[in-house]
UniProtKB/TrEMBL annotation:
<dbReference type="Pfam" id="PF00149">
    <property type="entry name" value="Metallophos"/>
</dbReference>
<protein>
    <recommendedName>
        <fullName>Calcineurin-like phosphoesterase domain-containing protein</fullName>
    </recommendedName>
</protein>
<feature type="domain" description="Calcineurin-like phosphoesterase">
    <location>
        <begin position="48"/>
        <end position="289"/>
    </location>
</feature>
<dbReference type="InterPro" id="IPR004843">
    <property type="entry name" value="Calcineurin-like_PHP"/>
</dbReference>
<feature type="signal peptide">
    <location>
        <begin position="1"/>
        <end position="25"/>
    </location>
</feature>
<keyword id="KW-0732">Signal</keyword>
<dbReference type="InterPro" id="IPR029052">
    <property type="entry name" value="Metallo-depent_PP-like"/>
</dbReference>
């Protein structure tokens, strides 16, 4: 009697053994645990785009606006994950903290890369002025932080100076973010846009490396000026200042000031958008310190994010946030201490 019972017991154990998952199978877990694991999705890798305007050597305000945008934590380290931070130039001048702010961005650039994010820096006119030896807006505190005027001059050399090389290696004249938004310090004119972002960045790099800050059209003129320099007559006109005026992508304010009226301004903005295949233009350079708010015109096709962040311009805090939606559109917000607004 015991032998058949023993055989049946062994067969039952064998069946239970065969039903167990192999080492390559998923373990059998309670339903609640399986549900919890199923919904633990990795964070999206197309993070936000966050942009801030002119900072002018003010470390306190720089950290305040970056914390407002939630890309820097209380310890001044990167907290933006997969986000892209774009700073539209003029980190330098008018304040005491030049070294500290540039070093902050250098640190954040490395930390963001390690986290899967990115930090993008765009040349402002004040970067170019300092690289070219135009130091009219440098403060005495700034000189002292470098150890004097001569040491500061040495630091800004793009070939041998620690800060000049840092800037040259990491800054461009313009940046197109994921095909939808173009960033520049000054206003992007249609003539420049038609040359393309890569060409503009190449022109600026070549001019800076050669030390050609006085005559390079990329820094002072219009796209028409660049094309015209191949003709001797127009070159002579340029030397007289009739063509190459301050309408390059680090200087122009024509969109921000609507010099030709709103209708013509928006036509020009549309021409830039068409040339670069983008949805919007973002500039710094023209401080909105009277309102402390981001300027948005042309149905959101053009925005100025220089709100006067530094204490020199009033200490206003604002950042731009761009969210990429699943349908290929973008939602654009202004971030203020009092909350977030659709623009």
């Amino acid at each position: 009697m015991l032998r058949p019972i023993l055989i049946l017991a062994l067969m039952a154990l064998l069946i239970l053994y065969l039903r167990q998952p192999s080492s390559k199978s998923s373990p059998i877990l309670p339903k609640a645990v399986r549900t919890s694991i199923k919904h633990q999705q990795p964070p999206p890798k197309n993070g936000r785009t966050v942009a801030v305007g002119d900072l002018h050597s003010d470390l306190e305000q720089t950290l305040a606006v970056l914390r407002l945008a939630k890309v820097v934590d209380a310890d001044s380290n990167w907290s933006g994950g997969y986000d892209t931070l774009v700073q539209t130039g003029d980190i330098v001048d008018r304040g005491p903290d030049t070294i500290a702010v540039y070093n902050l961005f250098d640190k954040l650039r490395k930390q963001a890369k390690d986290a899967g994010g990115k930090v993008v820096n765009v040349y402002g006119n004040h970067e170019v002025m300092n690289l070219g030896g135009d130091l009219r807006y440098v403060t005495e505190e700034d000189y002292a932080s470098f150890g004097g005027r001569q040491k500061r001059k040495e630091a800004w050399d793009v070939k041998t100076g620690w800060l000049g090389k840092q800037i040259y290696d990491n800054f461009n004249i313009t940046h197109v973010q994921n095909g939808h938004t173009v960033f520049s310090h000054g206003d992007m004119e249609p003539e420049w846009a038609r040359l393309g972002a890569e060409t503009l960045n190449l022109l600026s790099r070549e001019a800076i490396w050669k030390g050609d800050f006085r005559n390079a059209p990329i820094f002072h003129g219009t796209g028409k000026c660049f094309l015209a320099l191949t003709k001797e007559k127009e070159r002579e006109e340029d030397e007289n200042g009739s063509i190459c005026m301050e309408f390059g992508p680090i200087w122009s304010r024509t969109h921000a000031t609507q010099e030709d009226g709103m209708e013509e301004t928006c036509k020009s903005v549309d021409a830039v958008k068409k040339a670069l295949g983008v949805n919007r233009l973002i500039s710094g350079h023209t401080p909105q310190y009277r309102t402390g708010k981001i300027l948005s015109i042309c149905n959101g096709g053009y925005m100025v994010i220089d709100v006067g962040i530094s204490k020199y311009y009033g200490g206003h805090l604002a950042a731009l946030e761009i969210i990429e939606n699943d349908d290929g559109t973008q939602s654009v917000y202004a971030l203020y201490p009092g909350g977030k607004r659709l623009v």
